Amino acid sequence: MKQLVALFMLLVLSTASAAAPVRIKDIADFDGVRGNDLVGYGLVVGLDGTGDSFRNAPFTEVMLAGLLERLGINVTDDALRSKNVAAVVVTAALPPFARSGSRIDVSVSAIGDAQSLLGGTLVMTPLKAADGDIYAVAQGPIISGGVAVAGEASRVVEGVPTGGKILGGARVEREVAFDFSQIQNIRIALRNADFTTAARIEDIINRDFSHRIAVMQDSGTIIVEFRKLGQINPARVLGRIENLKIEPEDRAKVVIDHKAGTIVMGEHVRISHVAVSQGNLTLRVSEAPQASQPNPFADGETVTLPRSFAELREEPGIGFAEVGGEASLSDLIDGLNALGVPPRGMIDILKSIHAAGALHADLIVE
Predict the structure, then answer these.
(1) Can you tell me the distance from the alpha carbon of 340 to that of 123, in angstroms, rounded to the nearest whole number?
(2) What CA–CA distance (Å, rounded) separates 197 from 113?
(3) Long-range pairs for 158-161 at CB < 8 Å and ≥24 separation?
(4) What is the pLDDT of residue 319?
(5) Domain segments of the chain: what residues?
């Protein structure tokens, strides 16, 4: 019963959120106002014997030798036998309009056979973008999200000790060239393309500015022409636009998560006239072998005789539950609850209704 109540709350919450007005910046992105992905390859030092083994990760040895040579220390391969160093890949996201000297968070992931990065420190690592230029430099102590404990015959791992983060661990060295004040127009890109939502955004922008500055280009794009307002600051215009509220439209969807037994339905889910019945058929087969022994003092041997029992049982049916034509979301819930089945049974029923062509929504099974 608790599972049915929790399921019902999920459905109600999804319905309420679909009908509530939301800000434009929560459902759309502005063309040009975007981040850039950065990646680098570096070394983590200071590990407590949990780093790479140079036999299985020779690239770590090469990087360590190169680092020491740049610091003025010449070493041979035989002298490098440390288990306190690990090779890692460093990733980060350069936010839009990030200025030189500002700091960003980075993620660190081991690529060798290191067992843990706990307690390690990332050595200065340049981070490059897709164009090959260096935009930031990362360095600092790693905060690992896991721990590993090993003994002579067993090992316990909690979380992912071979990955971690450095909060504010990278300093921006190069800015992305973008002069926002010189743009003539900007595109608003919807995250979920829909003609009705795009039309509502166009209407509310034009109504709020009392000028026709917004034009819907397609179901996912609205073009805003700033210069029709005269000499203004485009940044202030976008700040005003992104806080305008509309009621977004979306396709009717039913999302099913088989692993968790979760069902989420949208507000616009409709179902045609249909009758549903559910029953359980149980087949049980058991083995009870029996031993046969010879009489006392008689020649012979003990043998095992197979003994099987098979039972086919069908539980009493609960009849048909009828759902009226063009039923709403609440009608559908009432109809399914009338069957008295658990959420996983509801998943099978919804799939069958969809297969019969009576469920008017996109069925997404994850």
Answers:
(1) 61
(2) 50
(3) 161/50, 161/115, 161/116, 161/117, 161/118
(4) 53
(5) 22-32+179-246, 36-172, 253-281+316-365
Q: Where on the phi/psi map is residue 45: left (φ > 0), alpha (ψ -120 to 50), or beta? A: beta
Placement of tokens 């005789």 in the chain = 305
Determine the distance from the C-alpha atom of residue 125 to the mean position of all C-alpha atoms in its chain, rounded to a whole number: 28
* Chain mean pLDDT for the chain: 77
Q: Give tens-digit pLDDT for 43-70.
A: 999 888 888 887 777 777 777 777 777 7
Express as a percent the part of the chain with pLDDT over 90: 23
Q: What is the CATH number of domain 22-32+179-246?
A: 3.30.1360
pLDDT digits (tens, 9 = 90+) for 331-349: 666 666 666 667 677 777 7
